[in-house]
Design goal:
With 222 residues, the chain is an alpha/beta fold. Helices cover 32% and strands 24% of the residues. It has 6 helices and 12 strands. A hairpin with a 4-residue loop joins strand 8 (193-195) and strand 9. Helix 1 crosses helix 6 (166-189). The protein is globular, with a radius of gyration of 17 Å. 43% of the residues are buried. The mean pLDDT is 96. The structure holds 5-O-phosphono-beta-D-ribofuranosylamine (GRF). 5-O-phosphono-beta-D-ribofuranosylamine (GRF) binds next to helix 1 and strand 5.
Length: 222
């Protein structure tokens, strides 16, 4: 029997996080099902991947709407039709306006390639290198109206190595991001983790620090 926890995935790009989620679901590691994949970009590889897998997809192009609010409303109207329990922003490269965030408050996560609160926004790998960080990573956080600023559920760390450039660092991080996203979605689907605008709870208790993905892909407390 397929799990009842319903995921809507938002993606603008190549869709490697979407692919990782699909594989983890198929392997029984994430007790959820993807009920729709949504994008602002018709040519997104993520949409082709979803179509090939027979998933429901919907695209709303920003150019077809008067402003951000109108585009958000159209995209999230489409999302609402699939009645998601959780919306996963997996490389959705647009800022989501406050009205849309409020509409789905506490039901939306984002994967961001930095150890938040460090480096919100773009070019996170270059920023970590420029700062001379010895450790870089990724975060899964609740979406709130401020960019990349919601409470963090879980993180994964990777080392920065001598000679790394942004591409090398991104390539080292990406497979760990995939494992992080799958483990975080599993916790939410199991009902163990819950999102709030100001905190994340695990097993009914507020997290005082993000969970951390270990080398065996388990999330452990700080
Ligand atoms: C990932 O690095 C994710 O952390 C960031 O955008 C990238 C998306 O990659 N938000 P993909 O489209 O899932 O391959």
């Amino acid at each position: 029997m397929s799990p009842s926890f319903r995921l809507a995935v938002l993606a603008s790009g190549r869709g490697s996080n979407l692919r990782a989620l699909m594989q983890a679901i198929d392997a029984g590691r994430v007790p959820a099902r993807i009920v729709g994949v949504f994008s602002d970009k018709p040519a997104a590889a993520a949409i082709a991947l979803a179509n090939d897998a027979g998933l429901f997809t919907a695209i709303r192009r920003p150019a077809d709407y008067a402003d951000r609010e109108a585009h958000d409303a159209a995209l999230f109207d489409a999302v609402a039709t699939v009645q998601p329990d959780l919306i996963v922003c997996a490389g959705y490269l647009r800022i989501i306006g406050a009205a849309a965030v409020r509409r789905f408050g506490n039901r939306m996560i984002n994967i961001h390639p930095s150890l938040l609160p460090k480096y919100p926004g773009l070019h996170t790998h270059a920023k970590a290198l420029a700062a001379g960080d010895a450790v870089h990573g990724a975060s899964v956080h609740a979406v709130i109206p401020a960019l990349d600023a919601g409470p963090v559920l879980a993180q994964v760390h990777v080392p920065v190595r001598p000679g790394d450039d942004a591409d090398a660092l991104a390539a080292r991080l990406l497979p760990r991001e995939h494992a992080l996203l799958c483990a975080a979605v599993a916790l939410l689907a199991e009902g163990r983790a819950r999102l709030f605008p100001d905190r994340v709870e695990l097993d009914g208790r507020p997290l005082t620090a993000p969970l951390r993905l270990d080398d065996t892909d388990r999330l452990t407390g700080a």
